Amino acid sequence: MKFKFLISTLFLICSPNLQASKYTYMGQLQELAEEKDLWNKGEWLQLLHYRQSSDGTGVYESAVDDATFFLSDQGKSSPKKELKETLTAFFKRHEDDNEQAMCRFVGRFRWLSNQLNINQKRMPVVDCTLYEEWREQVQAEKVTLVFPAYYLNSPSSMFGHTLLRLDPKDSDEWPDWLSYAVNFGANVASSDNSIMYAYKGLMGGYPGAVYCYPVL
Fold it and tell me: Rounded to an integer, what distance in angstroms lies between the CA atom of residue 16 and that of residue 12?
């Protein structure tokens, strides 16, 4: 009997599927996420910019084209697989903590922590220095939606656009130039002339990118 018990114990320890099993904390979180159907929640779909097709098939596709934004090979079109892979990635170690999923995807981790009541003491300890430095630099306490005036001398502002302004604490007592702006715009090639800029801009020829920079 002792021999059989030892063999069973060794099997559980050495099993390659142990990391995803219900016997591990990661497995428990994935099982709970499955029960709660978290991948289908509106917050998760918005976090990863998923859009559902209008043809009635229920197929999802993210508006993000950057492959590094996804942890699953099928993450762009599968909210469920991306969520499961995200939970798995939270437990993976990296030489540089800034590459760890909890540092790279802070919004995902916070939302999943709230939904699954994640015990922080059972998670890997990471030092997200790049994120903390950015937060310290931005010092954002509130967000303001801004629509800049039309400016004909600037092609990027000729048709008007909206952006988010990250305001520091007590921003009413400070000038706006202490704030940071988050803007989604075209990644324009410096070699393009005005004609090429107008053509590509109207025809969707430029890739979009999110920028965060001081308002000044």
Answer: 9
Range of the domain at 180: 139-214
77, part of any domain: yes
Asked if residue 2 is part of any domain, the answer here is no
Contacts of 83 (CB under 8 A, 6+ apart): 33, 38, 39, 44, 112
H or E element that contains 208: strand 208-214
Query: In the structure encoding, which two tokens stand for residue 95, read together?
Result: 């030489």
Shared domain check, 162 and 125: no
pTM for this entry: 0.75
Token reading at 124:
């890997």
Contact between 38 and 112 under an 8 Å Cβ cutoff? The reply is yes
Kindly state whether residues 120 and 30 are assigned to the same domain.
yes
Beta bridge partners of 140: 168
Domain count, the chain: 2
Q: What is the pLDDT along the chain (216 residues), one digit of tens a residue?
A: 444 444 444 344 444 444 455 469 999 999 999 999 999 999 999 999 999 887 777 789 999 988 999 999 999 999 999 999 999 999 999 999 999 999 999 999 999 999 999 999 999 999 999 999 988 888 888 888 888 766 656 655 555 578 888 888 776 666 666 788 888 877 777 777 777 877 777 777 778 778 888 876
What sign has the CA pseudo-torsion 53, 82, 211, 114?
Answer: positive
Residues 118 and 183 in one domain: no
